[in-house]
Amino acid sequence: MVTIASWNINSVRLRMSQVARLLVQEAPDVLCLQEIKCQEHQFPAEAFAELGYVHQVIHGQKGYHGVATVSRIPLRECSRHDWQDNGEARHVGVELLGPGGGMVLENVYIPAGGDTPDREANPKFGQKLDFIERMTRWADALDRPTLIVGDFNIAPLDCDVYDHKALLKVVSHTPVEVETLDRFRYAHGWVDLGREHIPAPGRCYSWWSYRAYWRKKDQGRRLDHMWASPELAPHARAHRVIEETRDWEQPSDHVPLVTEFAL
DNA sequence: ATGGCTCGTTCGACGAGA
């Protein structure tokens, strides 16, 4: 059994104690973090090592973004894509060695896309779509069993948001984003493990705004995902959304996903 | 129905998140 977790932590240095709590509670073999918000040399490497996560692949930058994959089973970095072509640290890929050997694990933080869902008025929105289109061309050529996880910043299904109609013009749930993400999914036949294990319209939010009023009304969105190659997906035995972390003290606005694979 | 919190920057607003 190999257990993989993913969590947009929104500053790993600020929340290392919460990460430790999750690692003890869920005992994943591998944890993929997004928005670590630090450079490689600032990453709390020693704290992870003390918990047994001695294998660490970090793609950080100063202040913003940044991803890291930590593991208690051996792994090897195999890619570091810049799908936005602007130098931001939003991806790292590893190959698992030993248990789960041969699986490729892609850890990605897709850009949020700014406020306005219009390429002309808001360049960040275009960058988000372009980022996913580059991922699509990459996925088209994949020939190994792969799991891609992370913060996709898109809630694809109607039931992935608290109010589908109200969010049709809100970045994260617009039809153009959903269609762009659909093309990425078709390019490789990715299986959405979240909805494989928690069928629509089951509750499956992974993000709630920090704004207290929205949080109180449970206005969540499913922005975080785990997608598996067609040959890998049938090995997934369990999938959980660890919603309780959102009620921990000074939490991340995202909650972790955990999937167990019989490998 | 609601951009009303929270982060890192680095010491006080500001850009960014989504």
Automatic annotation (TrEMBL):
InterPro entries per record: AP_endonuc_1, AP_endonuclease_F1_BS, Endo/exonu/phosph_ase_sf, Endo/exonuclease/phosphatase, ExoIII-like
Give me the residues that bind Mg(2+), please.
Answer: 8, 35, 151, 153, 253-254
Q: Where is the Endonuclease/exonuclease/phosphatase domain?
A: 5-254
Site feature location: Transition state stabilizer: 153
Protein name stated in the entry? Exodeoxyribonuclease III
Question: Sorted alphabetically, which NCBIfam families does this protein's record hold?
Answer: xth
What species was this sequence derived from? Croceibacterium soli
Keyword list (alphabetical) reads: Hydrolase, Magnesium, Manganese, Metal-binding
Q: How is the cofactor bound?
A: Probably binds two magnesium or manganese ions per subunit.
Molecular function terms in GO for this entry? DNA binding; double-stranded DNA 3'-5' DNA exonuclease activity; endonuclease activity; metal ion binding
